[in-house]
Amino acid sequence: MSRTALKRRSDLEERATLFAALGDETRLGIVGKLSGGAPQSIARLAEGSALTRQAVTKHLRVLEGAGVVHSVKSGRENLFAFRPQPLKDLRAYLDQVSNQWDDALMRLKDFVEK
């Protein structure tokens, strides 16, 4: 497999991992809480929800694997912070796909009108 094909496959795997991580409403809620700015502890993220700290930890590990959050050790606890770059990259990808569909539809329209 060529270097370009390997890169393309790697990019697709990263996007699929990110889509899968964001495809859960609990994880989306966690991303929403973290996108406010300051890093938060697992206990703080579990406050006000029916989730245990262990469940929150499991979801955070999935998000961390997708690159959306990262952890920082602070004393005895880990604080988790939002990383916006993977979502910006995903947005750029979705814009690219949207543009491809727009172009295809324009070509179809031109063909039908001729």
Can you offer a commentary on this structure?
The chain has about 110 residues and is α+β, with helices and mostly antiparallel strands. Helices cover about 70% and strands about 10% of the residues. Strands 1-3-2 form a three-stranded antiparallel β-sheet. A hairpin with a 2-residue loop joins β2 (about 70-75) and β3 (about 75-80). α1 runs antiparallel to α4. The longest helix is centred in the last third of the chain and has 29 residues, at about 85-114. The radius of gyration is 19 Å and the shape is elongated. The termini are far apart.
Short description:
The chain has helices at 3-22, 25-34, 42-46, 53-65, 85-113; strands spanning 40-41, 69-74, 77-82. It is α+β, with helices and mostly antiparallel strands. Helix 2 (25-34) packs across helix 4.
Task: Label this structure with key terms.
5 helices; alpha+beta; 68% helix; 3-stranded antiparallel sheet; 3 strands; 114 residues; Arc Repressor Mutant, subunit A; single chain; elongated
Q: Which stretches of 5+ consecutive residues score pLDDT under 50?
A: none
Radius of gyration: 19 Å
The CATH topology comes to: Arc Repressor Mutant, subunit A
Query: Taking strands numbered 1, 2, ... along the chain, how are they ordered across the largest sheet?
Result: 1-3-2
Q: How many DSSP helices?
A: 5
Major sheet description: 3 strands, antiparallel
Q: Identify the CATH class.
A: Mainly Alpha
Coarse shape: elongated
Count of all domains: 1
The succession of helices and strands, N to C, reads HHEHHEEH
Chain oligomer state: single chain
Structural class: alpha+beta
